[in-house]
User: What shape does this take?
Amino acid sequence: DGRLGFPGGFVNSQKRTLEDGLNRELLTKLGEAASAFSVERTEYRNSHAEDTTHVVAHFYAKRLTLEQLEAVEAGAPKAKDHGLEVLGLVRVPLYTLRDGVGGLPAFLENSFIGAAREVLLEALRDLELVEPGSVLNFKRHSFRQPSLNSRT
Assistant: This one.
């Protein structure tokens, strides 16, 4: 549907842990390179309950080496769900251009699924990948899309 989000799936908590389910999902969504690491309970960030669907999403953040990231990026097109649920990977720009809009602020203008945008910002702050307080400045800009009926 064109929205940005995170890998995830449903877990039967009587048979598996959340981390087991997440690692399984990473393998099917990102490919075999995801088997070189596993997400652990200590990497849990937060949970978000969806009122309308009665689904709780649990968010984790995993630090990868550049080599691990490049392996995931190279192998992702061969993953089981590539082209179905996943259409690609995106690197988040961790900078802001001098105009104050380009880079992370412009990236945040994309359409995100559920609370993915807010969770991303919280993780960037908690992992100290952006300067303290700067996350608060990333408000939605009102970029106007041209109307289909407008003339150029």
